[in-house]
Amino acid sequence: MNGYVTPTRFQRVLDIPISFAQTELRRGKYIQIAQIPIEPNQQLHVRALAIQCVKNLTPGAVPVYATTSLGTVSVGVYFGSVLTSPLALAHVLNLGVSSINPFHVIKCLSAGVYTVVISNNTTNMDFSVSATGVAKLYL
Amino acid sequence: MAYLTESKLASVLDLPVSLSATELKMGDWLLLSTVRIVQPMLLTVRYLNIQLLSTNVDVTKIANVNKIYGNLGLCYVALRRDYTSGTPGAPGAVETLVANDLGITARDTASPLFVTVPGTYSWLVANNMKADATSAISTSTSIDFKLSITGQVRLDLSNV
After folding, report:
1. Which domains are seen in chain B, by residue range?
2. Calpha distance B27→A5 (Å, rounded)
3. Measured distance CA(A50)–CA(B121) in Å, rounded
4. Residue A84: pLDDT band by 50, 70, 90 thresholds?
5. Cβ atoms of residues B157 and B44 within 8 Å
6. Nearby residues of A96 by Cβ (< 8 Å), 6 or more positions away
7. Which of A70, B8, B38, B132 could bridge across to A121 with cysteines, CB 3.0–4.6 Å?
8. Which residues of A touch B2 (CB under 8 A)?
9. pTM of the predicted structure, to 2 decimals
10. Does domain A22-138 have CATH number 2.60.120?
11. Is A134's CB within 8 Å of B33's CB?
């Protein structure tokens, strides 16, 4: 992986955007913000994924978590439909920003459909959230 | 100029700054994107545009007194460092892209902004309008804009 990149090679490396502008996310809800199908011999590398919890729309409430490890709100890359099994996850416990470690590359090699899902993991609070990221697809 | 290697290509990420057509109410703002930078990363901001699609009032009737910040046009996109809350037009923004009329307003691609200072950088779009009794627009009218934003920033993870 240290050779020079030819124009032919360069054309087959794509940055797939993961973009979710500030949106109200109600208690217990989740939204799929991207889907990336991978075929055999293709690779997907995820190095940048961030979530910002901008506003608590239910101030004063004490969060009741559906799944504690996912924090109050989270964004993750999934292979399958189980919210508790992300391949990469950025989550916040309160207002603020959280991101995955860009120096630890999440490499997806198995063929299938990878999805990016943002979710509110509480049963009693609403939040205003935004997410940003990119997935590098090697065709 | 050196050739591009596989490892260099893998460490350069193009991140989106975008918003599909959305109605932004008078004085309101939305957070679009967030990027966290640590050493030795380099963030290059080059491409960004706003399209003001429509407004519910006659734009020619909008006066300077209707602007929250006189220098920030009808609406603007602000890049702020370590943003947590508050109006994005407040002093201290890293840069702003100001839309003064309907149509497309684009950032100058020949003048990239290079950012290496560690921090969390956020792009916010804001409606710069407010009601004013001396304006030709009634104070009971909310000056709203429908707008769309497209942009891209380049994050080089190993700027060495």
Report:
1. 17-156 (2.60.120.680)
2. 48
3. 11
4. confident
5. no
6. A52, A53, B84
7. A70
8. none
9. 0.92
10. yes
11. no
